[in-house]
Amino acid sequence: MMDMDVQAVSGAATVAIACTVAFYVIAKTWQMLIYSLPKSQNFAESIMRESAERIRHELNHLSRKQLTYLGAGIVFMLIFATAYVLNAEQLYVDYPQWQLNVLLGLAMMTLAFGIHRTWRTFFQWRQLSFQRDATVSIGHGLQRVAADNGRVYHDVDSAASAIDHVVVGIKGIYGVHVVARRPVQGGYVVAEGGKLRFSNSDEVISVADLRRANSALSRELSACTESDIKVRLVIGVPGWEIQSQGDGSLLLVNERNLPMIKGWRDTSEFLLNDVVDCINNNLTSRCSMK
Question: Which of 43, 112, 129, 236 has the most Cβ atoms closer than 10 angstroms to its Cβ?
Answer without folding.
Answer: 236
